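fyi for ur records
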Amino acid sequence: MKCKIEKPSLSKYRKSINKIDKEMMLLFKKRMEISKMISLYKKRNKIPIFDKKRENEIININSKQIKNTEIKKYYLDFIKNILKISKEYQKENQNKKTK
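which gave:
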């Protein structure tokens, strides 16, 4: 009797992606909550939102973890976009009028 090895189906791949997307969403929410706290700290202490040194540090430290050159450029786009969104969110929070 031959053992049948089941090939992964598209729906299985999509389920995996859905799980990863959910994890990323939860991490994104946490990151944005902390980003908000950072924006308030920066506002109170008159620190600019954009810190080129810190941004480069984040990009370099994290991108070094990506050894696969095929996806590294996409990761760089991804992390740069997250940083951009974070700065926009910080600006938005700083511009809100406090009651």
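The chain has a mean pLDDT of 93. thats all i got for now
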